[in-house]
Write a structure and sequence with these properties.
142 residues; 2 strands; two-stranded parallel ribbon; mainly alpha; single chain; 6% strand
């Protein structure tokens, strides 16, 4: 579940830099004050920074911080795969991705926001099958 650590650290870096979309959070969310307290480490003594996430994710803290800045500099669309839920605490990346998109304020804007399971065979957003889905023969009646 290193994805969750990365998503949380990205949100933490955005908030630490004061680049969160305060207007969007006030108008469209609840619980941001509590989430910010968690990001700052006020609830567990561990600030959720790029340095915190680096050893968990195997990514350089500077690269995490740069990505957090890029997320607020450019419209960002967070796509969370269905496969991430197939692990212990698998719901966490879904919540962390939603929180990151909210913190950045890109939800509801063209080319921004968050989605779940938008894959090549998931047919999300498509009005026709993009590929044949695997099936088993139904046999014959009678």
């Amino acid at each position: 579940n290193t994805d969750t650590a990365l998503l949380i650290a990205l949100a933490g870096e955005i908030v630490a830099a004061g680049r969160e979309d305060r207007d969007f959070l006030a108008r469209c969310t609840s619980g941001s004050a509590e989430y910010f307290a968690y990001l700052r480490g006020e609830t567990d003594g561990v600030p959720k920074t790029a340095e915190w996430a680096a050893p968990i994710t195997g990514l350089d803290a500077g690269a995490i911080r740069a990505l957090a800045r890029e997320i607020t500099d450019k419209r960002t669309f967070v796509s969370i795969s269905w496969s991430l839920q197939r692990a212990v605490h698998g719901e966490q990346p879904w919540w962390a991705g939603t929180a990151l998109a909210a913190v950045a304020g890109h939800i509801g804007h063209a080319g921004g926001g968050v989605t779940y399971g938008l894959g090549s065979t998931a047919k999300a957003g498509a009005y026709f099958p993009l590929t044949a889905m695997p099936t088993l023969s139904q046999g014959k009646e009678g």
